[in-house]
Amino acid sequence: MGQKQEGYYIFVGTYLSDEDEAIQLLLFDPDGEGTLTKVSGVKGIKNPSYLTLDQKGQHLYAVSEIDEGQIVSYSFDKEEKVLKEINRKPTLGSAPCYVSIDNEQQRVFIVNYMGGSICQYPLEADGAVGDVIDCIKHSGHSVHPERQEGPHPHTIVTIPGTTDRLVTDLGTDHLYVYRSETPDGHWSLHDEVDVVPGSGPRHVAFHPTQPVIYVIQELKSSITVYRQDEEGTLALVETVSTLPKGFTDENTASDIHVSEDGHFLYASNRGHDSIAAFQIGEKGTLDCIGHTATLGQTPRNFLLIPNSDFMLVANQDSDTIVVMKITTQGLPKPTGSQYTIEKPVCLQVLP
């Protein structure tokens, strides 16, 4: 753990209208139990369900999860602590729910959950999003009659140490690894991995020092562990549940993160409304060490504060962000501090 900062700026995406401040900036003070205070907010975007920042914290990108999806770019004024819109582009599909940037800070990627497609755009020098370079539409379905009637890509991330893009598709029960091997950057499919039918792959976390990938399965409330070889091929290691034994009520798993030291993994449960904590073994395997109630409903997203032992949990349906502190044993514990905000669904910390 590095030196603790005096404060952290946290961007929050919400399911609010374009007439509301649907993206808000909060200041997290790590002293004591940890407190959040509002700094600023921006209107003009509806349902910014996922946000990402560039490496320098100069630009923020948000997807507007609406029928005719949009990706919106902002500059961040570090003196005034406000976001200023640069431009926006259509995502060429409905309900975009994830956005990420490549390691070179030259491309931005989105997935259209209802549109069943993934797209990439160039980034201009001023942070603006350029015209779409490539867009791939998935096909197929899986066994859940309501949730898997067609493709529903949920995440696109760059696999560390590579230029490969890993895409989860909740609707087809597949993981796709795309590679850009031409100067124009167009994607080709490098690897395709089936998951157990009805699993619904959603979000991804990477081990910081091992070639191990963790995929949270929304519909089966499980985590699938993979190792990646030198050719970029994924091999299944194990699958573990995010729920305690004996829990049989409805639940969907949502978010997943690995601690900076690679010793612990955390996953959120919507229904059980908890954070599941796992100790990570030498080869990346998982051993559940406990569950912590999120003190709210539907923890869609959570954030591990860098260089600290704090966790922030966004409870979408109870309108709170709950502050937790992680013990030396790796278990998150509520500090008693929380912040009220309508429908929080994405938390990102300013680099």
Proportion of residues in helical segments = under 10%
Radius of gyration: 19 Å
Coarse structural class:
mainly beta
Mean pLDDT: 97
Strand order of the largest sheet: 3-2-1-28
Beta-strand residue percentage: over 45%
H-E order: EEEEEEEEEEEEEEEEEEEEEEEEEEEE
**Are there runs of 5+ residues with pLDDT below 50, and where?**
none
Distance between the termini: 16 Å
**Helix count, per DSSP?**
0
Please describe the biggest sheet, giving its number of strands, its sense, and whether it closes into a barrel: 4 strands, antiparallel
Q: Describe the global form.
A: globular
Overall number of strands? 28
Protein name: 3-carboxymuconate cyclase
GO molecular function, one term: 6-phosphogluconolactonase activity
InterPro entries: Cycloisomerase_2, Haem_d1_sf, Lactonase_7-beta_prop, WD40/YVTN_repeat-like_dom_sf
Family: Belongs to the cycloisomerase 2 family.
